[in-house]
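hey m, so remember when u said the tokens were messed up on ur end? i reran from scratch. heres the input so u can diff it against urs
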Amino acid sequence: MAELSWLGVVRHGQSVGNVRAEAAERGGLEVIDLAERDADVPLTGLGREQAAAVGQWVRGLPAGETPEFAVVSPYLRTRETAAIALGGTGIAMRYDERLRDRELGVLDLLTNRGVAARHPQEAARRQRLGKMYYRPPGGESWSDVLLRLRSLMRDVRADHPGGRVLLVGHEAIVMLVRYLVEGLDEETLMALSRSTAMANCSVSSWVNAGGALRPELFNEVGHLRTATTTTQEFVGADD
């Protein structure tokens, strides 16, 4: 199967959920005040500006280096990011549920404090197993997400051999795409997760060199610094 010539991943812009979750964690609350289901959480005004900055970056790429196709998570915040960033560029896109955010099951809308208070056994199990293999009841582990990403990447390579493909997804998706593309091990992935504040609308990319994808950018935010706003980062309690 032919390798892609270029692969990029953009995290969605700042969402209402990012803001509410950050406020809840800082305020010592147990529950995040968010009415929408995860799939329906929209961007904030800042998030829309960040998405527009991604659009400026795409339009500023040299001829022959722009993405040819985009695959987008069907969640509202990612669909809005893609529509703003790619609208009018002529880049074809499709939605794929395999790019959705990690599902948290019974821990959905709980802060770290909330998990410890309401599900102490799960908090202990999560601490013991780690992100890679801990699956909350009704939710997913990072390994579960990797299974659907492996399937997605196989299809992307088959459908766009030698192509330039952009993914628009979520924080965990960016990390796990890097794990797959670069062949990382669990220890390296966990260290990367602990050390990296994955920015909203950051760009990560890999370019084909010698028949394999090699790292080009990771968590790049230079395009945001030249826009009308500066980047704001939020790293959630788990993802």
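this time it looks ok to me. The chain is about 40% helix and 15% strand. if urs says something different then somethings off w ur setup not the seq
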